[in-house]
Amino acid sequence: VQLEEDLRDALEKGELSMAYQPLVDPLDNRAKCFEALMRWDHPQRGRISPAAFIPIAERSDLILHLGEWALRQACKDAEQWPDDVRVAVNVSARQFMQANMPKLVASALSSSGIKASRLTLEVTESVFIGGVEAVDEIFARLDRLGVRLAMDDFGTGYSSLGYLKRAPFKKIKIDQSFVRGCTESGDTNPAIISAVVALARALKMETVAEGVEAMDELELVTQRGANLVQGYIYSPPLEQHKILENFAKAE
Ligand code: G
Ligand code: G
Ligand code: MN
Ligand code: NA
Fold first, then answer.
1. Which of 10, 25, 47, 48 has its CA 20 to 30 A from that of 18?
2. Which residue has the CA at smallest separation from atom 13 of ligand 2?
3. CATH code reported for the domain at 2-250
4. Are strands 228-230 and 46-48 parallel, antiparallel or unpaired?
């Protein structure tokens, strides 16, 4: 409860920031997209993981405020990147239940000046729970805006292949739990990775292998056909100034 109260003030106090982790094309080692990940530096407790504070925010409308801020900040930061580099923002199920959600996205795009096609919204399977029909309409409006959608943490939620048909997803993110340790002998994860890649291809979607840490994992997911790789093997999430430095160096 104290944490929830602190989180309510965190935005105003400037304790929240965004970090960005590259999604790299293993064929040319270039970052094609960066996932925006929220960071909270609590004045007493230090850095608190979003895995801990996002669920607290999701208990109330607080997630709507944090979500809007994250979206606007990520678009603003992406405006300073090369214009063929995309940005991906995590969006909670609760945000998708707001009828004004597409308007908010359109507003974030126009105030930042980035093209809609540069923005990807990452959603988890939980967005479909409860059978909220209104969500279908919101996805359709976002698609018409030109924004891209990605299915995050695929295979870990209340998985249903039917969900893939519910919205115009461009990308499936294979959850880290299928990637980590996938090269150990007898492991069943390589079969799951191959199956998800084949499924995505058949549906004309891209795949991202998440949480790749080791060279043998990189080799395996690349060989199995993952289009993009995200993980510590390339880079942890970095602050905007670091990202800009890296772009400047690469020029
Ligand atoms: O950065 P880290 O790996 O600790 O993130 C943990 C979790 O928090 C991830 O599941 C990620 O999707 C979620 N998360 C991070 N930033 C945001 C955000 O801005 N909005 C939402 N809804 N979730 C986020
Ligand atoms: O759930 P979601 O995919 O949105 O969140 C991504 C989370 O995974 C972030 O918290 C990020 O910090 C974390 N992450 C990214 N790459 C790696 C990795 O290679 N290893 C581990 N352990 N975590 C990672
Ligand atoms: Mn994500
Ligand atoms: Na994920």
1. 25
2. 211
3. 3.20.20.450
4. unpaired
Specify the pTM: 0.96
Q: Look up the ipTM and state it.
A: 0.96
Q: How far is the CA of 251 from the centre of ligand 4 (A)?
A: 30
Write out residues in the chain with pLDDT < 70, as ranges: 130-132
The confidence score (pLDDT) of residue 132 equals: 66
- Which sequence spans correspond to the domains of the chain? 2-250
Q: CB atoms < 10 A from the CB of 66, how many?
A: 24
pLDDT for 248? 95
Instruction: Look at ligand 1, atom 23, and give the residue with the nearest C-alpha.
Output: 90
Residues contacting 14, CB < 8 A, separation 6+? none
> Helices (DSSP H) in 116-188: which residue ranges?
134-145, 163-166, 176-179
Of 86, 82, 140, the C-alpha closest to 109 is: 86
